[in-house]
Write a structure and sequence with these properties.
The chain is mainly beta and about 290 residues long. About 5% of the residues lie in helices and about 50% in strands. It is built from 2 helices and 26 strands. The longest helix is centred in the C-terminal third of the chain and has 12 residues. It starts with a strand and ends in an 8-residue tail after the last helix. The mean pLDDT is about 95.
Length: about 290
C-alpha cells in the first residue's frame, strides 16, 4: 500500500497575463519537487466567471524549452498557437499537450467566441519534464478533444475515469508521452471507493478540484485545492470519496536527473539555461507569424 507522504496546500495566487488567475500548486524550484518527478509544476485556475469582452485576455508570446505543457480545460475556451506551427482551440473537456523540447515561443488567450459571451472558466496547466536525451527533441503539439479521451465508468455508478495519458482498465489515453505516466481526470460520487494497482517506485499524487477524499491507512482528508503526495514504495492505493469529488490523478516514472530551471526553461545544468536564454534572444526558438 502506498502511504500518504504529505498534503500540500497553497493559498498563493497570481495572474498569468491578464486571463489566468491561478493558484500555484507546486513548482520545480520548491523543496517538494523531488517527490513529484516527472511532474514539474502545476497551476490551477479556479472557477471564475468572466464578463463578456472584446479584449484578448491571456498571455502573449513567450518561450519554453526542456519540457511539455499540458492544459486541461474544465470550463471556458483557450486558443493557442506556437512557432512550431502547432495550435488550435480547446474547450470544455479538451486537453492541449505541447512539447516545447528544444524550444519554441507560443501564446495562450481565452477563446475568441468565449470571450465575447463570457461565462465560467476553470483550467489546470501541468508542466511535465523531459529526460536529458529528449530535451532538445523537435517541438510538437497534440490537441486532444474530449471525444478522443476514453472515459471508463466505475461499477455501481460510482464515477468515471477519463484517461488522458497512460492506461486504466485496458483503456489507453491518446497522449503520446516521452516517459511512462498516467494522467487521469476522475469523478467520484460520495461514498465511492477507487482501488488502484500501481507501479512500485513511481510517483503518485492526486489533486482535488472539488470535494473531499481519504486514502486507506490515514485519517487525514484531502479537500478542495489540496495536493496529496504518496510514497513511491508500494503497488496499491485505495481512496474513498467523502463527498462528490472531482480530482486529477498523476502517476509516473521518476526522472532521476538534475534539474536546473529559470522561469520558462527547465534543463539539467546552469550552462544549458544560459544557452537557452541566448538562443531565445537570438531568435533560435522561432517566432509567431
Amino acid at each position: 500500500m502506498k502511504k500518504l507522504a504529505f498534503i500540500k496546500r497553497s493559498n498563493e495566487k497570481h495572474w498569468v497575463g491578464d486571463g489566468f488567475h491561478v493558484r500555484g500548486i507546486f513548482s520545480y524550484n520548491e523543496p517538494t519537487a523531488r517527490h513529484l518527478s516527472p511532474f514539474l509544476l502545476m497551476d490551477y485556475a479556479e472557477p471564475t466567471t468572466f464578463p463578456p469582452t472584446e479584449d484578448r485576455l491571456g498571455v502573449g508570446e513567450h518561450p519554453h524549452r526542456g519540457f511539455e505543457t499540458v492544459t486541461i480545460v474544465h470550463e471556458g475556451e483557450v486558443e493557442h498557437r506556437d512557432s512550431s506551427g502547432g495550435g488550435g482551440k480547446i474547450a470544455k473537456g479538451d486537453v492541449q499537450w505541447m512539447t516545447a523540447a528544444s524550444g519554441l515561443v507560443h501564446e495562450e488567450f481565452h477563446g475568441t467566441e468565449y470571450a465575447k459571451k463570457g461565462g465560467p472558466f476553470e483550467m489546470i496547466q501541468l508542466w511535465v519534464n523531459l529526460p536529458k536525451k529528449d530535451k532538445m527533441a523537435k517541438p510538437g503539439y497534440q490537441g486532444l478533444t474530449a471525444a478522443s479521451i476514453p472515459e471508463v465508468a466505475l461499477e455501481g455508478d460510482a464515477g468515471t475515469v477519463r484517461v488522458i495519458a497512460g492506461e486504466y482498465r485496458d483503456r489507453r489515453g491518446p497522449a503520446r508521452t516521452f516517459t511512462p505516466m498516467n494522467v487521469w481526470d476522475v469523478r467520484l460520487e460520495k461514498g465511492a471507493k477507487l482501488d488502484l494497482n500501481l507501479r512500485d517506485g513511481w510517483t503518485t499524487a492526486l489533486f482535488v478540484l472539488d470535494g473531499k477524499v481519504k486514502a486507506d491507512g490515514t485519517t487525514e482528508t484531502v479537500g478542495r485545492a489540496d495536493l496529496a503526495v504518496f510514497e513511491r514504495t508500494g503497488d496499491r492505493l485505495a481512496i474513498e470519496a467523502l463527498e462528490s469529488t472531482k480530482l486529477l490523478f498523476l502517476n509516473g516514472e521518476p526522472i532521476d536527473e538534475p534539474i536546473a530551471g529559470y522561469g520558462p526553461f527547465v534543463m539539467n545544468t546552469p550552462d544549458e539555461i544560459r544557452q537557452a536564454i541566448l538562443d531565445f534572444q537570438n531568435g533560435k526558438m522561432g517566432q509567431l507569424t
